[in-house]
Amino acid sequence: MSSTELSDTSVNDSVTVTLTVNGKRYTRTVEPRMLLSDFLRHELGLTGTHVGCEHGVCGACTVQMDGQPARSCLTFAVQAQPHAISTVEGLAPARGQLHPLQEAFRECHGLQCGYCTPGILMTMQAFLAAHPDPDEAQIRHALSGNLCRCTGYQHIVDAVALAAKNARAAKGGAA
Amino acid sequence: MSTRYFGEPVKRNEDARLLTGAALFVDDVELTGMLHAAFLRSPYAHARILSIDSTAAKQRPGVIAIYTAEDLGAYWQPGPLLVPPPPVAGITFNQRCQVPLAKDVVRHVGEPLVLVIAESRYIAEDAVNDIVVDWDPLPVAADLEAAARPDAPRVHDDVPGNVAAWVRQTNGDYATASRGAHLTIKRRFTYDHGCSQPMETRGVVAQWDNKADKLTIWDTTQAPVAIRNGMAAMLKLSERQVRVIAPFIGGGFGPKIMMFYPEEVLVPWVAMQLDTPVKWIEDRAEHFVATTHERGQIHDAEMALDKDGKIIGVKDVFLHDTGAYDPYGLTVPLNSQCTLLGPYVVPHYDSTFTAVFTNKTLVTPYRGAGRQHGVFVMERLLDIAARELGITPAEIRRRNFIAPDAFPYNHKIIYQDFTELTYDSGNYAPILDQVLKTIDYERFIKEEQPRLRAAGKCVGIAVVCYVEGTGIGPYEGAKVQVQASGKVSVVTGIGTQGQGHYTSFAQIVADATGVDVTDVEVVTGDTDQFYWGAGTFASRGAVVAGNAIGQAAGIVRQKILSTAAEHFECAETDLVIENGKVSLAGVPDHSITLGELARQANPMRGAVAPGTEPGLEATSYFGPTMGATASGAHAMIIEVDPETMMIEIKRYAVAHDCGVVINPLIVEGQVQGGVAQGIGNAFFEQLVYSEEGQLLNASLADYLLPTALDVPRMEMTHTVTPSPLNPLGIKGVGEAGAIPVGPLYAQAIEDALQLHKIKVELLDIPLSPSRLWELTRAGKLE
Hints:
The complex is a heterodimer.
Chain A: H1 3-7, E1 15-21, E2 24-30, H2 36-43, E3 62-65, E4 68-71, E5 84-86, H3 100-108, H4 117-130, H5 136-143, H6 154-170
Parallel strand pairs in A: 1-5
Antiparallel strand pairs in A: 1-2, 3-4, 3-5
Helix pairs in contact in A: 3-6
Chain B: H1 15-19, E1 35-41, E2 47-53, H2 55-59, E3 63-67, E4 92-93, E5 105-106, E6 112-118, H3 121-130, E7 132-137, H4 144-147, E8 163-171, H5 174-177, E9 183-193, E10 203-209, E11 214-219, H6 224-234, E12 242-245, H7 262-274, E13 278-281, H8 284-290, E14 295-305, E15 311-323, H9 331-339, E16 348-357, H10 371-389, H11 393-400, E17 409-414, E18 420-423, H12 428-439, H13 441-454, E19 458-470, E20 476-482, E21 488-492, H14 501-513, E22 520-524, H15 541-568, E23 575-578, E24 581-584, E25 587-593, H16 594-600, E26 616-622, E27 628-640, E28 647-657, H17 664-684, E29 715-718, H18 741-752, E30 764-765, H19 769-781
Parallel strand pairs in B: 1-13, 9-30, 11-12, 15-16, 21-22, 28-29
Antiparallel strand pairs in B: 1-6, 2-5, 2-7, 3-6, 4-8, 8-16, 9-14, 10-11, 10-13, 14-15, 17-18, 19-27, 20-21, 20-26, 23-24, 24-25, 27-28
Helix pairs in contact in B: 9-10, 10-11, 10-18, 14-15, 15-16, 17-18
């Protein structure tokens, strides 16, 4: 879908959107104004991505586009077509298993109601990929774009630090 | 029985589902043919509705139906009074409950007046924008103090002075006793608590099944049973025809127990009218004006003390902003009135409040539920008195504590559960000692602070104390059942919003039935699974439901033993229950699994002895005679940047006593989360209204929730004073962390900036850099 095609499309027309999410291709016909968050949740049934504010502040809807955290509530589904989308459903290696970051959250009680958690996982997984040995200040800075109303963040910070430590140990580096 | 899980930091059973995105939240419910609701809400705080023109909206493709108040017919009724007024002599209470859709007059911005049903939410919102309303704006009562004046515009035409309620409670005789005071402190305090802002907004999905004659409602409520009962009554159905499911809920903090929200009443009704599933999910902009707040109080308070700094009495007269309607009764101001007394002996108390209608969103309990307001007044009065008397804030508190041998301690005023405010147990001095030790209070004051001040640093320290009434009645219940799978099921009527009930309740049951904690399957918030209950509020879930579960699990344990004794033809005392099996003591190979026993307890053929009940299950109820009182102390060291007035928290310490702890990891999380909300309340969050009653900062970009950069690491210690009111000895912890943070900030900032030198006192919350700048500039001008 090029931008010239978009400009000829009114909101009432439908467009065909093809997205790659967690390595799988999906095609749906939707209104061009449909948000990526709504597309994932209501068209694809990937309801692990949560919507908290719909104005890009809270971070609950964070997914990854080509490995970078992005707010799916501020992105139209049509805009996401050229990118590889990853959501929380794609984190764990298999059903019944957890990704090491998810394991660390469970270990440290890094979630309470769990509503903000998928967005935080998608943010921090990308952060850890780029910063394998972060200090607490760096973790807090990276986390500061995601709001959590339950935990007071301390156990989330602990979980991210533990995940980093475990990942370094698994690679045989200094823990 | 060997205790294996109770008291241990057990990892949570619910986490795997939440972490993988598999947990079901209300907005995740997708049903075939489901329609979507959107509401036209009032843009005015107070206005007459002259006409509503929905012609264009009705013609929009995809719009199914549009309803105004007139279209609801007899279904249009004001909501019920959720909490009746307390039995206090001389009380005034004017009940004015919210309506499903505004008729004739709107009384706050965000009040719904038209309901649109469409094929998608996008279309429904387009249609809302098509509707044209002819308004006649009316004078607005927005400001609390102004709204309380006799000549203020009336929120309800027939309520003069906007008086929603007037309550005076006294103990002793303050007027007489205070005459002999060595020192009297008298100040005006303003305390503004914000709104809860759970990360999940509210939502309702309803499905009418006309073949089964049954209605199913998925609701982000903290009280599914009460919603079931209310909806059945309103829709003229039997309770058994209505199933309410509160699945995973993305945070509650109080406002999700308001009943009944207009949307909650309308969505099930429309689903029945149209015989089609209907979903409504609140967006964040709606949440700011349509979900209840807590907001403000203004206290004119005085404290009389003797020369040793002992309290003779407290007199307090305060105004409470209740918003446009008062369906939640007086819970919030009553909590303020009662919790003000804190852990202290107050021989004479004279407290009067007026709850005032304003043209703003309704006020109902939000985590702390008015306790903060009272605690702020008390703690600040003590701080000012300590300064006048030349003693430390820590010392004046210590001198006024209720002695450990004085419990149960009766304050002789009526609490929110309508019993006399009585503390079941407590031991306050060790808590204070503990927190002072953690923060190294004496050394900081004597060594570190002078050194840092000499180096030009504005550093301050503070310590505050509080109590929290928790675990009130009436009751909760639970059914515990061994399943043929060998797993043990627990069902209870409360809802859960992140408190870890799937784990703490499992711990109680796992110990009683000898199974692994992960083999206990907890179900909360489904009225078809458990019929009875009151709900999750007032830090009561673990206390009240937890004890009901403990009792039921004990009975199931007994049934396991008697069934196994029959099976083995031995005495019950010869049996051991562990690892999901019952075995003969000393002969572990001679065993039977709980699953097999459960099957044996449910014979399919043959005869049973008279009176035999099938299965290994039990249902129990627990209702405490009164609430269990938890307590705590917080201390903090801060540095203030005198140019920007930004605050850096150097250390934050919490010592608290919530009785016997089921799961320390969960308790820590509850306290940490509470403190974070307290920090938001103290320094970041404020609902800012214009004189016209417009909320000026209704977005998360403008209403600032604390981030990971704003909430410090907390150093936490526990003391344990078991509650004698329940078999498990537990007290609630849900609200504790949030309660004392306002006065902690005020005391620490006054100390850091040495505000007494410029005769500035911090008497209002929230504070903020700009507010501190204003106050300190005003001080220097004197």
